Each structure stands twice: as structure tokens, then as C-alpha cells.
TrEMBL record:
One of its GO terms (cellular component) is membrane. The keyword Cytoplasm does not apply. Keywords: Oxidoreductase. The keyword Glycoprotein does not apply. Pfam families: adh_short. Belongs to the short-chain dehydrogenases/reductases (SDR) family. GO terms for molecular function: oxidoreductase activity. InterPro entries: NAD(P)-bd_dom_sf, Sc_DH/Rdtase_CS, SDR_fam. This is SDR family NAD(P)-dependent oxidoreductase.
Length: 265
């Protein structure tokens, strides 16, 4: 009897990560979920096991703690056969750079970039043991242009885009397929929802709920797509934005983002 295969999802306690967990469980995939403490992971794991009959394991810790991250990954690889990695964990925010604490800046870089690269690097040899395996990486539409008043977040997502597209080419022919997903706005929490609603029609352009985004992302990943942009309006927006000069695009997007600051107070 072959050992059971697992999907590992980071940032799985809420929002898009939680929806990935639900939809993967509905496919009959066993799960390894990672999230910060306090995310009620026991309840989530129990409900997924009962509803879908899959095995769900979870680990609650801060992924920016490199020692804990490496120890956890070693434990996972020693006990479970992971053939699908979903790099979903990430944080952002909107504020002037001078109003953003050094701790916040460091947290974004540590989680969005450093931890994601460590997870991926450690799991690649493990994933390559399978005839076919997958890595899905959640970037953002923000990865396509620099943005004032967000600065660090879009830069981190641009890194994710560049790193994983390069990695896909490097792994070409190995049976390990890498996809990058570029979601538009997502109502992941009350603050984000308030900000999007406050922007009116422009804020809602390209808006999809988490179940739609997750379904599109999973379908695209298992179809071995390189780039996945959920939503017709987001794909149109991306095409149009590519035609604009960088200076104009930067001013246009940054002007809209600047309005978000009033919703962070």
C-alpha cells in the first residue's frame, strides 16, 4: 500500500488559505496546515476531517521564526509524503513609509520573502521524489507595478513572481510544476473589506470571493499553468496596464492607494 499523499498549505487559518484547505479536502486530498497560534486550527481540522473524510494535520507557529520553521518542515518531511505545496502565507498594509515601523517592514520581508523561500527550498527535494508534484505561490496584482504607500508589499510580491517563474524554468522537465497566482482585491477581513467598499466601483473592479479565487487557482495549478490571474477584469486590467508607461502607471495606481490611508486610521 502506497503512503498517503498530502497537500501543505501555509497561512491556512483564514481567508484564501482556509478556502484552499476546504477545496483541497473536497478533492479528497489529505492536508498539512500551517498558521499562527490562535487561529482555531483544531476546529478547522476536525470539521474538514468529518465532512470530507481526509486526514488533516496542523502546526501553529510563527513562520518568521527560522529555527521553528526548519524544525517543523523537517518533522513534516520525515512523516508525510507532500506532493503539493501552497505558499499562501503573507502580510501587507497601507501607510507612508515614515509611518511604518521597522518591525512591520521586517515582518513583511521575513514572511513574504524569506520564509516562503526557505519552505520552498527545503521541500523541493521532497517534492521531486514524486512522479508529478506542484508548487502554487500566491503573489498579487500588486506585483506588476511599484506602488507608493505600500512600497514593501508589492516589492515582496514582485520578488515572489520573479523567484517562482525563474524556479519553474529551472525545474522544467523534472515533473515538479510551479504556478504563480496573481489575485486582485480580496475581502479577507473587516479592515480590508471596509477599505475596498470605501473605494467604490474602482475598489470593487476585479473583486472575487475567496472560493472563486481558490477554485481558479487550483484548476490552473493542476493544469500546469505558469501564470494564473483570476477574474476577467483583472486579466483585462493587467493587459491594459502593460501598455502604460511606468511613470504614468505608478502615479495612477499610487494616487488611488493614497486614498486608502484614511481607512487605516
Amino acid at each position: 500500500m502506497k503512503p498517503a499523499k498530502y497537500t501543505m498549505i501555509t497561512g491556512a487559518s483564514s481567508g484564501l488559505g482556509k478556502e484552499f484547505a476546504r477545496q483541497c479536502a473536497a478533492m479528497g486530498r489529505n492536508l498539512i496546515l500551517m498558521a499562527l497560534p490562535g487561529g482555531n486550527m483544531f476546529s478547522l481540522a476536525e470539521s474538514l476531517e468529518l465532512e470530507y473524510g481526509v486526514d488533516v494535520r496542523f502546526f501553529e507557529f510563527d513562520m518568521t521564526n527560522t529555527t521553528l520553521l526548519q524544525q517543523t518542515l523537517e518533522e513534516v518531511m520525515s512523516q508525510y509524503q507532500v506532493d503539493f505545496l501552497v505558499n499562501n502565507a503573507g502580510i501587507g498594509g497601507t501607510s507612508a513609509i515614515t509611518d511604518t515601523s521597522l518591525e512591520r517592514i521586517d515582518s513583511i520581508i521575513q514572511l513574504n520573502i524569506r520564509s516562503t523561500v526557505i519552505v520552498t527550498r527545503m521541500l523541493i527535494p521532497h517534492l521531486l521524489q514524486h512522479k508529478e508534484s506542484y508548487i502554487m505561490n500566491i503573489a498579487s496584482m500588486a506585483a506588476f507595478t511599484p506602488i507608493a504607500y505600500k512600497t514593501v508589499y508589492p516589492a515582496s510580491k514582485a520578488f515572489i513572481s520573479s523567484f517562482f517563474l525563474g524556479l519553474r524554468e529551472e525545474l522544467s522537465g523534472t515533473g515538479l510544476f510551479v504556478s504563480v497566482v496573481y489575485p486582485g482585491p480580496i475581502m479577507t477581513n473587516s479592515h480590508t473589506s471596509r477599505r475596498i467598499i470605501g473605494q467604490g466601483f474602482k475598489g470593487k473592479m476585479g473583486l472575487l470571493n475567496t472560493s472563486e479565487i481558490a477554485a481558479i487557482a487550483l484548476k490552473g495549478t493542476f493544469s500546469k499553468c505558469r501564470v494564473i490571474i483570476p477574474g476577467l477584469m483583472n486579466r483585462i486590467n493587467h493587459t491594459l496596464m502593460q501598455l502604460l508607461p511606468l511613470s504614468f502607471k505608478l502615479k495612477l495606481v499610487s494616487r488611488e492607494v493614497k486614498k486608502e490611508i484614511q481607512f487605516t486610521i
